[in-house]
Structure formats: C-alpha cells, structure tokens
Specification:
Elements: H1 2-17, H2 36-48
Length: 58
C-alpha cells in the first residue's frame, strides 16, 4: 500500500507541475516489456485506452 500511495503522490505532483501533459492509466501486461512486441502492446493500449483483442479473435 505504501508503494501505491507513493506512486499516486508522484502522479499527482507531476500533473500539478505539468497540467498540459495528458496522463492516462494503462493496465499492466502479464510480464516484463523487453522487446518490440511488448512496446507495441503498450502503444496499442495507450492509443485505444484498452487491452488489445486476444490473438485469433475477429
């Protein structure tokens, strides 16, 4: 809970100091991001505001 509170404080301070910068929350991925596919998944989530459809979904 202390980590969550510290992260919220950091976000609040950043938005107070830089109100012109848009901020959004992105759901965590199930693993570490260490390759281009992981970066693309985060980019997709930032662009759409949601999780991408599972592979094979139409």
């Amino acid at each position: 809970m202390q980590v969550v509170a510290r992260e919220q404080h950091t976000r609040d301070r950043f938005t107070e100091l830089h109100p012109e910068v848009p901020v959004t929350a992105v759901a965590a991925l199930p693993g570490d991001v260490h390759d281009l596919d992981g970066l693309r998944a985060i980019g997709d989530r930032l662009a759409t505001g949601s999780s991408p459809a599972p592979a094979g979904a139409a």
